[in-house]
Amino acid sequence: MYAVIATGGKQYKVAEGDILRVEKLGAEDGATVTFDDVVLVSTDKDVLVGDKAAKASVKATVLRTAKAKKVTVYKYKPKKGHHKKNGHRQPFTEVKIESINA
User: Fold this and answer.
1) Are 102 and 16 in contact (CB under 8 A)?
2) For the chain, what is the total number of helices (H) and then of strands (E)?
3) pLDDT for residue 39
4) What pLDDT score does 89 carry?
5) Which residues does 10 contact at the CB level (< 8 Å), separation at least 6?
6) Would you say residue 94 has pLDDT above 90?
7) How far is it, in rounded angstroms, from Cα 25 to Cα 51?
8) What are phi and psi of 68, to 5 degrees?
9) Where in the sequence is the domain holding 76, given as residue range(s)?
10) What angle do CA 91, 29, 4 make, to 5 degrees?
11) Which tens digits make up the pLDDT trace of 9-56?
């Protein structure tokens, strides 16, 4: 059994026991989070899409909240002497999928 959930402007295919990184959620470590925006649910017998899948939910436990590795952004314009170096660390939340309720 697996499901496709939408969170943080992205879609993720998840199954029970999966660990994944999503955009930062406002939850503390160890808290239980419910994803109600379910796009698709696939069971052993059938596939639920649309209104049928909208009734489903996915429960997950927050493992940690941290920042990803730094991404270096370097801008350069030839013949102008323009150099600009910048960095960015994207915050994320790591969750473990506990159950899929269809």
Assistant:
1) no
2) 1, 10
3) 92
4) 97
5) 22, 23
6) yes
7) 25
8) -75, 175
9) 2-101
10) 70
11) 999 999 999 999 999 998 999 999 999 999 999 988 889 888 888 889
How is 31-77 classified by DSSP, letter by letter? -EEEE--EEEEE-SS-EEETHHHHT-EEEEEEEEEEE---EEEEEEE
Instruction: For residue 62, give the nearest of 92, 98, 32, 91 by alpha carbon.
Output: 32
pLDDT for the residue 54: 83
Domain count within the chain? 1
Tokens 């925006």 sit at which residue?
A: 37
> Whole-structure pTM over 0.85, yes or no?
no
Angle, CA 96 vertex, CA 90 and CA 100 arms, to 5°: 125
